Batch of 3 targets.
Target 1
Amino acid sequence: MTLSAAANGVFAIAPTPFHDDGRIDEASIDRLTDFYGEVGCDGVTVLGILGEAPKLDAAEAEIVAKRFIKRAGQLQVIVGVSAPGFAAMRALARTAMEAGAAGVMIAPPPSLRTDDQITTYFRQAEEAIGEGIPWVLQDYPLTLSVVMTPSVIRRIVMDSQACVMLKHEDWPGLEKISALRGFQRDGSLRPLSILTGNGGLFLDFEMERGADGAMTGYAFPDMLVDVVRLSRSGARDQAHDLFDAHLPLLRYEQQPGVGLAVRKYVLQQRGVIASAAQRKPGATIGATAKAEVDYLLARVARVDRRAALSRPHAAE
Amino acid sequence: MTLSAAANGVFAIAPTPFHDDGRIDEASIDRLTDFYGEVGCDGVTVLGILGEAPKLDAAEAEIVAKRFIKRAGQLQVIVGVSAPGFAAMRALARTAMEAGAAGVMIAPPPSLRTDDQITTYFRQAEEAIGEGIPWVLQDYPLTLSVVMTPSVIRRIVMDSQACVMLKHEDWPGLEKISALRGFQRDGSLRPLSILTGNGGLFLDFEMERGADGAMTGYAFPDMLVDVVRLSRSGARDQAHDLFDAHLPLLRYEQQPGVGLAVRKYVLQQRGVIASAAQRKPGATIGATAKAEVDYLLARVARVDRRAALSRPHAAE
Amino acid sequence: MTLSAAANGVFAIAPTPFHDDGRIDEASIDRLTDFYGEVGCDGVTVLGILGEAPKLDAAEAEIVAKRFIKRAGQLQVIVGVSAPGFAAMRALARTAMEAGAAGVMIAPPPSLRTDDQITTYFRQAEEAIGEGIPWVLQDYPLTLSVVMTPSVIRRIVMDSQACVMLKHEDWPGLEKISALRGFQRDGSLRPLSILTGNGGLFLDFEMERGADGAMTGYAFPDMLVDVVRLSRSGARDQAHDLFDAHLPLLRYEQQPGVGLAVRKYVLQQRGVIASAAQRKPGATIGATAKAEVDYLLARVARVDRRAALSRPHAAE
Amino acid sequence: MTLSAAANGVFAIAPTPFHDDGRIDEASIDRLTDFYGEVGCDGVTVLGILGEAPKLDAAEAEIVAKRFIKRAGQLQVIVGVSAPGFAAMRALARTAMEAGAAGVMIAPPPSLRTDDQITTYFRQAEEAIGEGIPWVLQDYPLTLSVVMTPSVIRRIVMDSQACVMLKHEDWPGLEKISALRGFQRDGSLRPLSILTGNGGLFLDFEMERGADGAMTGYAFPDMLVDVVRLSRSGARDQAHDLFDAHLPLLRYEQQPGVGLAVRKYVLQQRGVIASAAQRKPGATIGATAKAEVDYLLARVARVDRRAALSRPHAAE
């Protein structure tokens, strides 16, 4: 089943699990995929920035994407196909869709500056991957340094046949969601799924502004699932209560650079992946940081028992 | 009394209060200064980035600095003197010190890239302002795009006669504090006060890593004062409890771009400044955002009564 | 006489002459101004990027601008008023116009990215300096990192009451001139003077594409005057012959960073300014570079006797 | 024969020839390779930035590299292996060396800022490609936005077993060559071949500062070969005379963005490649620009008959 503008809920951004020596850990891919399904995710996004995609060569990227897709079951899989050139983007997009992906995700290259450069890029990208492949527009200025106004996003979507979703991670971004939903109310923008990123740091209010859910990699996707559900059902205070209980840890995990190391460490503590290793160049966290995370987990666990990790880890 | 490497506690980063029409609001400067003293701050930093310093002309900058200094009483006043050139930097630094400032703060210009460019710049800056003026090194890569390793900071400090404080706001930055304190333990770095910024987003752990306090503009400096005190007294859990209660609001206020609008709105709600106006170009917050802030304030108030604002504001 | 969209010819970008100890050299300002008039310039632009404007404090900037204006005679003087904030921009613009400037020049701050950010900035800048002051739009992406499409330039000009000139220094930029002139042919852009910069590196073809002249600081403005005149009179080959004879030196002088040091050195050799000193931070050229420049001057002098400098300089 | 620190002369940066429809044009690769050999080049560098390497997928990159290598005869082939991650870099480096490449070239990723980040990156890159592969360090701040001081280059080279050449294209860069040669004179830097890029814009003086030759893509490598030879034999004036005759065209070809379109157009006019097509996203040159290039060619031909192109092209 391919991705549509009606998509909603939680799409987990998956890290790529490696063995300590840097080889791809396929067993952990399977376990991670199962985990996302079990906690109630609707989809999983692989080979994103967080997924260390640029550190894989072309053959490895295919292997990883196919492994997630094969295991995914009911989960929709979105494959990040951002690449320095369209040939590589097309090759991976085709392979992924043939293997059963629900759609692909495209981020703009950092060199784009003007509105026209940005809209032209996405027109060419859609042409490159070929007709009929649903794709997700990634809007992530903090990391990509490409700034898209709501109007530019509207132009991209309205120019396109197949852009069905926005991965929203502008920062700040609440007004952007309101602006895009306003465009839809005035009839100038067609239906578009908006899932929000930024580690979930503003998920509480993003839902209230009109987001359809989250696409982010916080190591407790189960919390994201609950907050999205509570918020959509109108249980505002409960949504915030649960969100706020996690916020100290979520904030810690959302740090640029070291965030992935924290996330892999927590997923490892939760028993989901075997190793927290990253490929070079990658950040690591030392004993002090691990103790800080453990302290935060214990504090979260006072409200959310899922953070009470039964698996104690060895000292460094 | 001039600033020294023994400085600690909370130095509030002061916004510059304007009337709705953009004129400087001197009565609000006085009230704001008094407020910082009443809530227990040790100092106040004026004409920083947050203080809209670049929007003032040279004469206005002097007026603002002198007004804060005159009112400050026991508070130490640090004046931001960052400028595109050394002549303007020197002029403001001299004026500020003559008026009674405790020290000045210098941020690097965004064009600096290599280690040598950075260390040379600060050597020239110190020479420009003249001997004997204690100064604060601002390390804020997210906004300034200048990246200083711990070793470069050490070179700057050890080259300098008068650099007594680091305004730490690298992000992530916990390991940087640990690295600098490690340099001091191994004897390669002389005493240096480290106050942390970034809106206070990591103050809880920054204190535990060895920070001497906070220099940031969160609209509840009273909370910052308490967390710094609790943390220094070893009351770890209480420090985190109070910090966590404020974190949802603090995070909201720390958004780039709109953060200052939120902060001025809260300070206005607290009755400290008369208007939330910024000079152009500036962000504003609309009714939805104000309602979000009010909701967050009400939630904070369940734990910290200081957030229960008695002064209801009119609807927009 | 104020600047209009009919302006053409050569506007020299003036360096700011300093004494060796960094003080402003007013006698050299006078001599430099006279020189520009004698060689046939139509105007002079002061306090630009090349003019080390950011290294002057506010009072000094006024002194420099007024000195040039007072001496200018028939030359139209454009004053660079770019500043981090509108208050400083307004103050200098008012002072300059009252002293007799023909207009002011405004460059965008490097933080601008989207088309809307750019057009909004110039609308606010025009509002800030006040009605009726003719201004020059500076388009210099290489240094300022702000990219304006021809359409954005059109929006800025058509939104404005008083933007009468484009300082064109996009690189590459030939197609941009053609595009803007095309807009005028199709009636969508009102009259606009286009003077080109970039050290004159493409002046030969820029004239053929429709530029009205040059606004740049090459140390032989006499050559620029001749090339503009030859090109406008249809003497294409002669224009290129003269231009090409200077190109090796012009290229050498157009190097970022050290270019100003070369330029001041040549102007000093020509007897126009007393010292080649720059304020810190500034580049210097050593003995090898000076010898390279001398060699290039000697080669130019085979075709253009004005480059045969009679004033030998002492060895370092 | 693998690359060594004794390498000198001219290494042409090869464009990748495409058919009009974007397919790789292998016949033109062969003709281009032959051409470089016939005009006296010592080597050829393929899959560089100019070679549109990021627009090829991994399989295509291998095909292109192997085709050049197979045809190269006496020419040493350097393969650009810069990649967003080490896995892709390693894969291409291994393939290239097995196919007979003389070495590989590595550019830093744009995200690197501090001296330590830069030196660490190249240490990891060398480790990734594996021992014993000679590599070229590319120093190209204008495009890559990574600034390396001479000291950092020295650290990289002295840390490395296998870095044998610097592709020097800092701008300005003359003093950098002098600084590096000074390091060698004082014994702190081991032997290192320095070939200069930047389209050859400063080749005349770069040779005099101590460069070993050129590595650049100017469409008249025959001129580069002559200038390098003349300069090394001490025929200074002749070297400059020939260089200066080409400079107007060389400057035109060195424009960022459109330069490659000009270069491919000239190579097509010279009968070396069949089509000037680039893959998207790519610049094109229109009728006016082509006529400008033709005019420049005719002017060069007055001094250098090789620019008198016998093959007239059809009007657009």
Target 2
Amino acid sequence: MTIHRPIIEILRHGTPGDRLQVKGWVRTKRSLKEFSFVEVNDGSSLSGLQVVFSADLPDYEPLSKQLTTGTAVEFKGELVASQGKNQRVELRAATVKIWGTADTETYPLQKKRHSFEFLRTIGHLRGRTNTIGAVMRVRNACATAIHQFFQERGFLWIHTPVVTASDCEGAGELFTVTNLDLENPPRTPEQNIDFSQDFFGRRAYLTVSGQLEAEIMATAFSNVYTFGPTFRAENSNTSRHLAEFWMVEPEMAFCNLQGDMDLAEAFLKHIFAYVCDRCPEDMQFFQDRIDGTVLATAEQIIHQEFARLTYTEAIALLEKSNRSFEFPVAWGLDLQSEHERYLAEDYCQRPVIVSDYPAEIKAFYMRLNDDGKTVAAMDVLAPKIGEIIGGSQREERLEGLEERITAQGLELDAYWWYLDLRRFGTVPHAGFGLGFERLVQFMTGMENIRDVIPFPRSPGNAEF
Amino acid sequence: MTIHRPIIEILRHGTPGDRLQVKGWVRTKRSLKEFSFVEVNDGSSLSGLQVVFSADLPDYEPLSKQLTTGTAVEFKGELVASQGKNQRVELRAATVKIWGTADTETYPLQKKRHSFEFLRTIGHLRGRTNTIGAVMRVRNACATAIHQFFQERGFLWIHTPVVTASDCEGAGELFTVTNLDLENPPRTPEQNIDFSQDFFGRRAYLTVSGQLEAEIMATAFSNVYTFGPTFRAENSNTSRHLAEFWMVEPEMAFCNLQGDMDLAEAFLKHIFAYVCDRCPEDMQFFQDRIDGTVLATAEQIIHQEFARLTYTEAIALLEKSNRSFEFPVAWGLDLQSEHERYLAEDYCQRPVIVSDYPAEIKAFYMRLNDDGKTVAAMDVLAPKIGEIIGGSQREERLEGLEERITAQGLELDAYWWYLDLRRFGTVPHAGFGLGFERLVQFMTGMENIRDVIPFPRSPGNAEF
């Protein structure tokens, strides 16, 4: 028993006359008097292969009865041209083997619509549905496109650590990683928990970003990217937040903000083009069933140049817009979701890259512009989605970086190695971050981020 | 300033007469009276580009003085055929820009040999050395080869969760993930820590394996693989253990142990062939400087069929060997490292796959063979390395699985969803696990596993 020929290959390249076997799970069955039509799906594509299972075959009655939704089955037979208009070929079964049945009374995935909420409670089975199946194939294609994009350009994929001793970005709440006996932890003389006796010899956390480590690697290998899990312990029970999500973070030495923006645009164009090319049936499914704009959005991303605005220009446009926004608009205040959407959806009507934000509202590592007020930061804002990518040129000047760290109330000592990168052969460098699940949402039109990751982690939820 | 042309491209494809710029860091400088030879490296290859920097250029003296090891530099000029025998082309510099200096008094990476122990203390700089540079390029090539292998065969890359509520394999010590206030945690009426008030509503851990989740996905998509970080809280301060490491775990529906072994062998052959093809200079470096057998090993993996033995055959061979082993040899006892090495190095003199181990010494999820005593498990043993891959056909029969779980003292309830996979459309399926860092060690001959991962995590160590 070796790797079988996936159904997608049979659907695409199978020729009438081929003798083959197909293995998968029954999606639907229509029984007529002289034969049954059985749709078999193996997860390789949205469409299954139609199998014609004739009443002339031995044990037709009992076997046909067992061919219920969810049953694992193996048919051998001959591929023939299909009479039906929904498929090019179908399999005329000569033999059937039932590997595992699925009781119609207890199997939760009967042929009907299920809410995504319900499907989340059966995360071990939901991959077998049309929608989650299409999501996971598109997700895989996105991931493959990301690797292809960077590898073709000579970027090294680097694995930055999940466990870290520093809250380097100061980016919100952190999960602690420990193997102390929490019921009875070791104590310091002051009666605090003695984390020096913990596994890593100090308190350790789950990472919120691999950027700072990516900067290390960029100063050795020039162009690198991370693609790994990151974490937020924020109690955000929303359709846009996960406690564990995958992030992509390229980092380029000898690159400024301009190069960073160019790369971000080329990157999104590449991913959308790749997925539309590889998963046309799945993308059509999202267009038809989930969000009637996904194909137009993909077309736009692929073919239209992104708009570019400075933050200062964006503020002026927002002030002139005569819109009544919920949040105030003024130079120095951060852009809110409603502002971002106005810029992308209404004013530009396409993705827009906003750059050069006020230093006060951005992280310490972003490079101060010559005006002394703004930093070389950029966000890619997409219609309907808002921020999809955030990036910056990094402060590569030692003194400026020290000032920014101190000004934000952070400890210089904690950044000794980050500062060393500015002491020894410092270079202009830049990078960005893309939340991978946000990208998959953007691509598919799926409303809830928990439905675009195999096993979502959120407050109160670590099942499966 | 956009993505620059990597030096490896110039070395491979540059033509005398090309006018170009090169950006990178000075590795070495030799100053003669009329010019300096500067070797510039940007991390894209082991070799740098030789730049000839003439004394005729303006400010030659002060600039040349600054071109010390580690200095970040940009040269523009014309590519010319090299007179030297170490390179095909070299750059005749017309201009130089120094981006960042590296003080010879304080920059730790002066031109001399450094011990790997010392380099680990400067993890933020060690990627700039020849050895760690070559390791990271080979590591990237291994990772790319893994994705290519599976994607070409229609496997989906699935991201299994890092945070998990179950110690599903019972595989040793776990790290706890929490955001409780550990100094003052909520308590149950019994005065235990009340993990129901923790972020995930229960006690959560870092995963030790994505296998069980991969099985979920294989029963929807047939062929899948994980490639992500996994964790062990074992206090093993050895050259072969990491607390955080990356693991690759394919899982195939409709596949038995035979198919699993075939895939594992094809997989290793593919990776070695890919890396030797893509990183010939780095591999030659490991051969010359680190381990004089790595090229022969790669040749053998690529071209020679792996040996295959059952555990029962292996025990018989070990008993007949007349070797005096430290650990006893008897049917029912696990193979120790010395036994594995005897089988691979001495008896087979090539990689060997040992299969069908006693049920008692293997995990609950492995499929019981018809003899009632052994399970459909397999380990790929490599000369010098020992176990590099471990896999099995999984127990797909509900009753047998329940018996195995109970027999190992585990709770059936914790496995409700894993058991469901056997209730609804169960299929024969199999998979294996590869420790990614072990693979990189195997490929490069590097002795210490901490030197084949960018930022190693081990007891007492979570720096960078």
Target 3
Amino acid sequence: MGVTVAIDCMGGDHGPVVTVPAALSFLRSHPAVNAILVGREDVLAPLLGDALAGLGSRVRVHHASEVVGMDEPPAIAMRNKKDSSMRVAVDLVKAGEAAAAISAGNTGALMAISRFVLKTLPGIDRPAICSILPAVKGHTYVLDLGANVDCTAEHLLQFGIMGSMLVAAVDHIERPRVGLLNIGEEAIKGNEIVKQAGELLRGSGLNFCGNVEGNDIYMGSADVVVCDGFVGNVALKTSEGLAQMLSTFLREAFGRNIFTKLMALVALPVLKQFKHRVDHRRYNGAVLLGLRGVVVKSHGSADGFAFEQAIARAADAAGNQLIERISSKMASMSEAAA
Amino acid sequence: MGVTVAIDCMGGDHGPVVTVPAALSFLRSHPAVNAILVGREDVLAPLLGDALAGLGSRVRVHHASEVVGMDEPPAIAMRNKKDSSMRVAVDLVKAGEAAAAISAGNTGALMAISRFVLKTLPGIDRPAICSILPAVKGHTYVLDLGANVDCTAEHLLQFGIMGSMLVAAVDHIERPRVGLLNIGEEAIKGNEIVKQAGELLRGSGLNFCGNVEGNDIYMGSADVVVCDGFVGNVALKTSEGLAQMLSTFLREAFGRNIFTKLMALVALPVLKQFKHRVDHRRYNGAVLLGLRGVVVKSHGSADGFAFEQAIARAADAAGNQLIERISSKMASMSEAAA
């Protein structure tokens, strides 16, 4: 019983040294989840040690001879590496042996492979990448974050549906608030596509709360924020840059001299608590939505803790019928439209 | 001698109580700048006290009977309020009585009025809004931030030119590095317009350093970052939201109990230094670029210190021939193309 996940153990900046211990640690703390560790047997075996025995039939290694490079063009990875750990992990989902795949490998390749192998759900034109960001209150799901640079209003509507169903599955909020990312400038409230998307969302039966602005992502004004992949990617990367700059400045301020270093020492518990609250590792694990299977992308530079969050998200989405929820919402909408 | 600026003293969330003292304080510390304070004489006079005498002919009040509301539709403000302080300040630039106008009023109205009164420079299709953001190294000018939601590749090229000339004028960097905001996803490097804009910028004679991503804004990888107004506005607002969230979290972490409050007290000098470094007030003053005159928009909620920065930016741009620089670059480019 329980959910089985297929883990691409070779992907990411660090590869198996991080993914294997993270997978084992996750399995130990989540007895209802089983895992198939995908990758080169000769590389994975030594890292497993006697863990396989301890976890019994809940974990097994599935050999895959190739690895997709972090900078490899997606088309090449898809065409030439049919036995890559990434491809095999997704194949296992397709074959029904696993309910979800997790990879820290190259996003473009993972998206291309997932789309090719699993195909999109009925009514979904394009899959989207959905991440979670922290907010003053709770957290916010944002999509698309880079899979689709040119979106129609219909695509944005589909993102709204997929995001809502993800929140329903994972956060158990039955009618999540959906906001449409727009700009606040009085003169020109958004472009034509965004205006049309607003109309579609209003008539969708979703809990649409209208336009939101960039700052609303971090205020928690909506559970799901919908935007095209170009805008979403810029918002995400800009946030990463700002967070990095602020952390650099804070470190520099406390590191200036012996007195400021002492102050840092005194303030350590507070700084730690602050750091925990905004720890991006807790939010690791972007969901590739709209496919006939759950696929989760971990950040390439994820450490063990972060990688475990990505596994958790995948197991959670699969265990809470994410795919069925999206399918059934799409079906009911196409019935209503017919 | 010196630069004369026209200040809309009625605009902004606080109006004259903030703008008038800020203007006087600025004039006292900048003896080469003169100011025309625009607004209702009966409101401004009591705030001036005997400052007019002290500053001699360097400052005068220009009466304007109306005020543009912060939420007033730009078209209405433009059509119906010909004697608004905002309109009159821009009129003074048009008439040559001032070299620059500053307003903390509604952005849409200021853009509409400036465009109508001053017109765009030859070769410039659309004015853009350019702000400065802090970076790990130095700072970064970003445009457009919301004036244009649908941009062609040519518009993005023009933004690159205008931004470069602003940096040349204000920061005295003769060949500023210009980056094109794009997304890093391997599969799909930007949409068609951004790709074309890249080609145009490469052939422009500007110091084009290629694509940059959202995080580069805060890394200082380029002096000028060019994007369409929708993307730029989202990036800016997202940053504001994130900064606000982090500052809330930091305050909450230090405010939890008596011990953490004591830690905050100890760490106060460091926190102050950190706060100063990222103080958004220092970056106040967005430049409306591409017009036949310098117009600077202050944040509506600016306090006196922030409003002074906006005045400084306007005086600086006008004093360093911003308009002439843009005109001459546009002329040389159209000659080269002919």
